[in-house]
């Protein structure tokens, strides 16, 4: 007997065709058909302990397999619990399908319990929002995937009424072909080539858009041909290995790093923005260069409407094709010999030393030294993220993932769970402040249930360290930033994993070594003194 195709099946099968193999969320009665359809299509549904964490697990899987993330939430409070991670996906350009259950339209007319307008909630923080219709299920599913995965990527919401999920539907063959790569016109290319060949102090800044276009090979060839030093945003770290001679590291959040990097940008005679999306950057990165005395080329998938910076040449074109066209026929310029990039690189190395006896920098340095090449890291928001993003060198794209656009606390633990689920053979470590870890400690149960063994490292200083630092800088009295020192290692053991408290490099080294071969996850509580970030970020 053939089982009739439901509208939920049509949606699930299109997601499977898009490469999705995992979905995350918390089911309610309104999404049971949807969960059943996902499972039947070959997409495993994973139960998280909170919808926000479920979305971050999905994002981490996306960073591993490239497929859109899937977040499933039931109506009302379930859907609203996911608002933060959906907004994060919108700002961090993550393709995500947000599937929420809802009551039928007729039911809404005289029933109010947990009923609210999900589409009105999600419209400002998604690229599009749809209400599933059985007759147009295939069209809606295809449009949702196409919109989510078209640059700039982002979340798309689909509200699924209870009866529509079960309604018969036709599984058609609509699929939108990807757009062809484009390059600038000849006049603009000629101008850019002239600037490039005559430049004496060029610099490049590479951002998130380049990562999404998988443009690393083209960028490497272009920068090496013209010997252009480069800076990346934090999310673009590793698009070229950070031990590359031309790499100046990540930027955008650390005032200390900015003191060395911003002067290079202001002194450059040519700035090449390669997929540079300034949504990761802070106020100090507004209008960094002066178009009256500097040439700027901006290669981006969308028009520059953010006004964080401007350029004389804005190419709304494909990155790889544009760099190849720009390099073709351009006279190789004279090699820069003023020593400024090398001096800045040396100054950055001195500003973020690796040899502290103990403290947050020592924790990061020791972790980087002990964990093998190929370790995947996740970072929560807080003072430690600023330090980590400067000190944790990446040899591959997405070697360190974090919430850069929205800067959400509590993201590192679920991201590490998703990363380890998708790439179980790779070492995975999350770096969390103690406050952020407390927000999501319940997801340790999820790691135990999945039988995966990531490492969860917690900086324990019993303080919202970054906020406390800002409070002191403004000469305000200490208020609402300190809390108790809790036994985080015991939390790890309580949820079926390992738990270790460390107070020096030797203890941390031993804990990391044991964690790499452990059968269960490990929580490492690194106890540090308050004020450890002073002068370091």
UniProtKB/TrEMBL annotation:
Asked if Membrane is a keyword of the record, the answer is: no
Pfam families with a match to the protein in the record: TPP_enzyme_C, TPP_enzyme_M, TPP_enzyme_N
- The protein depicted here goes by the name Thiamine pyrophosphate-binding protein
Report domain Thiamine pyrophosphate enzyme TPP-binding positions: 380-525
Q: Which residues does the UniProt record annotate as the domain Thiamine pyrophosphate enzyme N-terminal TPP-binding?
A: 6-120
Organism whose genome encodes this protein? Parasedimentitalea maritima
Q: Which residues form the Thiamine pyrophosphate enzyme central domain?
A: 190-326
Cited Gene3D superfamilies:
3.40.50.970, TPP-binding domain (3.40.50.1220)
Give the record's family classification. Belongs to the TPP enzyme family.
From which domain of life does this come?
A: Bacteria
The UniProt keyword set, sorted, is: Thiamine pyrophosphate, Transferase
């Amino acid at each position: 007997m053939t089982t009739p195709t439901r509208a939920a099946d049509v949606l699930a099968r299109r997601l499977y065709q898009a490469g999705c193999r995992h979905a995350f969320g918390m089911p309610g009665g309104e999404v049971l058909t949807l969960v059943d359809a996902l499972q039947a299509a070959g997409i495993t549904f994973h139960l998280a302990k909170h919808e926000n964490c479920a979305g971050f697990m999905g994002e981490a899987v996306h960073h591993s397999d490239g497929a859109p993330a899937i977040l499933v939430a039931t109506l009302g409070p379930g859907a609203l619990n996911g608002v933060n991670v959906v907004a994060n996906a919108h700002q961090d350009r993550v393709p995500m399908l947000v599937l929420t259950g809802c009551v039928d339209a007729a039911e809404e007319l005289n029933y109010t319990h947990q009923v609210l307008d999900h589409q009105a909630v999600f419209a400002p923080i998604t690229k599009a929002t749809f209400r599933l219709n059985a007759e147009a299920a295939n069209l809606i599913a295809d449009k949702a995937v196409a919109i989510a995965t078209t640059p700039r990527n982002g979340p798309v919401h689909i509200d699924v009424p209870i009866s529509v999920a079960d309604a018969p539907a036709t599984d058609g063959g609509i699929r939108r072909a990807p757009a062809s790569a484009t390059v600038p016109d000849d006049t603009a290319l000629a101008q850019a080539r002239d600037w490039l060949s005559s430049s004496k102090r060029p610099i490049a800044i590479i951002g998130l858009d380049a990562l999404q276009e998988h443009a690393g090979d083209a960028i490497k060839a272009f920068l090496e041909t013209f010997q252009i030093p480069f800076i990346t945003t934090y999310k673009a770290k590793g698009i070229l290995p950070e031990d590359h001679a031309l790499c100046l590291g990540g930027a955008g959040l650390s005032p200390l790093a900015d003191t060395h990097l911003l002067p290079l940008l202001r002194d450059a005679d040519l700035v090449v923005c390669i997929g540079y999306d300034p949504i990761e950057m802070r106020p100090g990165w507004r209008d960094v260069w002066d178009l009256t005395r500097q040439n700027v080329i901006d290669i981006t998938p969308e028009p520059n409407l953010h006004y964080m910076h401007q350029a004389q040449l804005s190419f709304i074109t494909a990155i790889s094709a544009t760099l190849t066209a720009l390099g073709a026929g351009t006279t190789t310029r004279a090699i820069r010999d003023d020593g400024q990039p090398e001096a800045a690189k040396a100054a950055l190395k001195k500003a973020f030393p690796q040899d502290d006896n103990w403290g947050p920098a020592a924790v990061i340095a020791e972790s980087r030294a002990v964990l093998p090449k190929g370790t995947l890291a996740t970072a929560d928001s807080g003072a430690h993220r600023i330090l980590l993003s400067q000190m944790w060198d990446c040899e591959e794209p997405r070697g360190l993932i974090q919430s850069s656009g929205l800067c959400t606390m509590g993201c590192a633990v679920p991201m590490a769970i998703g990363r380890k689920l998708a790439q179980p053979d790779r070492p995975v470590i999350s770096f969390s402040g103690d406050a952020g870890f407390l927000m999501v400690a319940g997801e340790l149960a999820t790691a135990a249930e999945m039988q995966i063994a990531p490492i969860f490292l917690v900086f324990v200083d019993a303080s919202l360290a970054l906020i406390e630092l800002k409070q002191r800088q403004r000469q305000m009295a200490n208020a609402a930033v300190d809390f108790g020192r809790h036994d985080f290692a015991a939390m790890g053991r309580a949820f079926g994993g390992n738990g270790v408290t460390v107070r020096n490099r030797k203890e941390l080294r031993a804990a990391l070594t044991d964690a790499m071969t452990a059968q269960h996850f490990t929580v490492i509580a690194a106890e540090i003194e308050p004020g450890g970030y002073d002068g370091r970020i």
